[in-house]
């Protein structure tokens, strides 16, 4: 009996023992012993996602009110913007008006928030993202290696406040805004933390893209991969080639449901594109949120919409091309003639002028080689250039794109198919067909971003398809995303340095509006954010879920149409 009792006690508390070992000095609810054995839904006092590296909860609170003063480094416009981002939230939600002062003017010793930079401390490299956040009863101190770190500290600070701080409407709060006393040291595990959005299959307006970027930033991710061109629609204005949008942004109709032996179409033209002015506006918006945008221009495949506008860049200009009305992979692709190469370079030039980030994504995935096999031009090119096959033709083309991109001081990214004919010298690889492409590229000392279907394809079902809106297929529950470790264990230390980080991808064949995008993205993107930011040894799914239960309240205030079935099994069963 005694033995049974000891076993019972041990098994009831074993998860907590593990928990308190891993979450160094982070006592959930300040009272480990009081936690029930099934701790999954009991949120700790501090629920930050992604989980900070080191978090020590102390006693007491700092109260934010209209007498609070926020002090920033003198003449630092980016930090001032971040400070305003913070103070505007409180001002908007209940009129709490925090004054911002710079550190060369006098400021009080108490009821003060200090933002301080230590630019010489470049932990984690030049793009320093670390921050230290200390909340005491009379003072909050934020120290960071750079402006990014200050911004991430503010994201943590907002998550230390009650979820109501995210309310879009004014609220009357009687209790005031209390921030628990805490000490946080934080920095990301990976330098690259991304989320992708396909706007080719369906178009989402700039206002939605900005909200998507806000959410990326809220989760301390730093990259938005904007998939701008597809078979079904070209979505970016290119001044030199106006037909790309006047013709290529419109498909005549769209498949209803899944493709079947008797496919049905809606008969409605569908279109949309971003003007260059809109792109510039989104880029500027993202900059303030410390989110870099990687534009993707698909080549040589997924190019049917472009060919519908400019058939002369196909291998058979006598054919009539139309933007695709169904989903899948199409055999008509760009033909690597001189005129196509000039066209693609022109397009990339305009794209590089619009996007200040260092990367340009050229796609490279799913480009069937049939049209090239049948093309006298391509076959002659193979002979002339001494290429082995059509895969080497693709590499030959991509090398030309890379030289053009590198000449502008930028770098090329492609999907893992760009390995097939040999990597171009400086290419970064996005490993999507599992992780092997990423491993192979890292072994060649090329940079890699891990984005495997098996762990981070957010277009996959998250619950039983019987209770879910129509999706492409697959099955990727929240816990599986959370379980992902982007660092393969088969790499040497030198090779491992080339794993820059991870990204979740969101393809939109079946996502016709922003609500549906958010439903698929959240909360799985929260899990990805923690995968990419938090130290591996702190990962703990029950703890994540407990924090997520509070985090979802924030997302609700932010108007995010997240999937709630993880916390609402009844809905999952009955829907
Ligand atoms: C991809 O999912 N085709 C990159």
Walk me through what this model shows:
- The protein contains 19 helices and 21 strands.
- It is of the alpha/beta class and 575 residues long.
- It has an eight-stranded parallel barrel, surrounded by five helices. The protein has a seven-stranded mixed beta sheet with strand order 1-7-5-6-4-2-3, with helices on one face.
- β10 and β11 form a beta hairpin.
- Mean pLDDT is 92; it is low at 1-39.
- The structure holds acetamide.
- Residues 365-366, 415, 432 line the site of acetamide (ACM).
- The site of acetamide has 4 residues, from loops.
Index terms:
single chain, 575 residues, alpha/beta, seven-stranded mixed sheet, 19 helices, globular, disordered N terminus, binds acetamide
| Strands in their spatial order, largest beta sheet | 8-9-14-15-16-17-18-21
**Into which percentage range does the β-strand content fall?**
15-25%
Number of helices: 19
Task: Give the bound compounds.
Answer: acetamide
Oligomeric organization of the protein chains: single chain
Mean pLDDT: 92
Structural class: alpha/beta
Rg calculated over all Cα atoms: 25 Å
Backbone shape: globular
**Overall helicity:** 25-40%
Number of strands: 21
Question: Distance between the terminal alpha carbons, to the nearest Å?
Answer: 46 Å
């Amino acid at each position: 009996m005694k033995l049974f009792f000891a076993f019972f006690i041990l098994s009831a508390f074993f998860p907590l023992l593990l928990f308190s070992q891993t979450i160094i000095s982070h006592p959930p609810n300040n009272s480990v012993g009081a936690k029930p054995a099934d701790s999954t839904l009991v949120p700790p006092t501090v629920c930050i996602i992604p989980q900070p590296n080191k978090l020590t909860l102390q006693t007491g609170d700092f109260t934010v009110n209209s007498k609070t003063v926020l002090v920033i480094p003198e003449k630092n416009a980016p930090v001032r913007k971040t400070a305003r981002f913070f103070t505007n939230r409180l001002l908007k939600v209940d009129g709490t008006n925090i004054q911002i002062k710079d550190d060369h003017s006098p400021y009080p010793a108490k009821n003060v928030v200090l933002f301080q930079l230590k630019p010489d401390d470049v932990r984690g490299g030049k793009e320093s993202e670390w921050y230290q956040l200390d909340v005491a009863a009379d003072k909050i101190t934020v120290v960071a290696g750079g402006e990014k770190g200050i911004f991430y500290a503010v994201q943590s600070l907002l998550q230390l406040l009650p979820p109501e701080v995210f309310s879009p409407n004014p609220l009357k709060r009687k209790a005031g805004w209390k921030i628990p006393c805490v000490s946080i040291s934080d920095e990301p595990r990976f330098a690259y933390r991304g989320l992708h959005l396909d706007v080719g299959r369906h178009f989402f307006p700039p206002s939605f893209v900005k909200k998507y970027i806000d959410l990326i930033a809220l989760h301390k991710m730093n990259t938005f991969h904007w998939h701008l061109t597809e078979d079904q629609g070209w979505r970016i204005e290119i001044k030199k080639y106006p037909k790309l949008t006047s013709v290529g942004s419109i498909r005549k109709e769209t498949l209803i449901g899944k493709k079947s032996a008797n496919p049905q179409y809606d008969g409605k033209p569908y279109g949309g594109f971003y003007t260059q002015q809109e792109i510039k506006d989104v880029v500027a918006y993202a900059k303030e949120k410390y989110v870099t945008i990687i534009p993707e221009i698909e080549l040589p495949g997924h190019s049917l919409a472009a060919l519908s506008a400019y058939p002369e860049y196909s291998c058979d200009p006598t054919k009539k091309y139309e933007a695709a009305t169904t989903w899948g992979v199409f055999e008509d692709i760009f033909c690597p003639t001189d005129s196509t190469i000039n066209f693609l370079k022109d397009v990339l030039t305009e794209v590089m002028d619009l996007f200040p980030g260092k990367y340009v994504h050229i796609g490279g995935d799913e480009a069937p080689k049939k049209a090239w096999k049948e093309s006298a031009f391509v076959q002659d090119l193979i002979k002339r250039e001494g290429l082995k096959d059509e895969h080497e033709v693709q590499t030959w083309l991509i090398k030309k794109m890379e030289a053009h991109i590198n000449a502008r001081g930028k770098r090329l990214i492609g999907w893992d198919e760009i390995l097939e004919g040999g990597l171009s010298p400086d290419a970064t690889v996005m490993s999507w067909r599992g992780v092997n492409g990423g491993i192979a590229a890292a072994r060649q000392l090329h940079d890699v971003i891990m984005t495997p279907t098996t762990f981070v394809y957010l277009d996959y079902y998250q619950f039983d398809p019987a209770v879910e809106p129509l999706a492409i297929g697959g099955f990727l529950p929240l816990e599986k995303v959370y379980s992902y470790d982007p660092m393969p264990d088969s790499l040497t230390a030198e090779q491992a340095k080339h794993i820059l980080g991870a990204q979740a991808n969101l393809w939109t064949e079946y996502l016709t509006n922003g609500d549906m995008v958010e439903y698929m993205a959240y909360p799985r993107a929260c899990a990805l954010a923690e995968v990419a930011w938090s130290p591996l040894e702190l990962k703990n799914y029950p703890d994540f879920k407990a924090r997520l239960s509070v985090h979802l309240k924030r997302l609700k205030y932010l108007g995010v149409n997240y999937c709630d079935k993880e916390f609402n099994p009844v809905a999952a069963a009955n829907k």
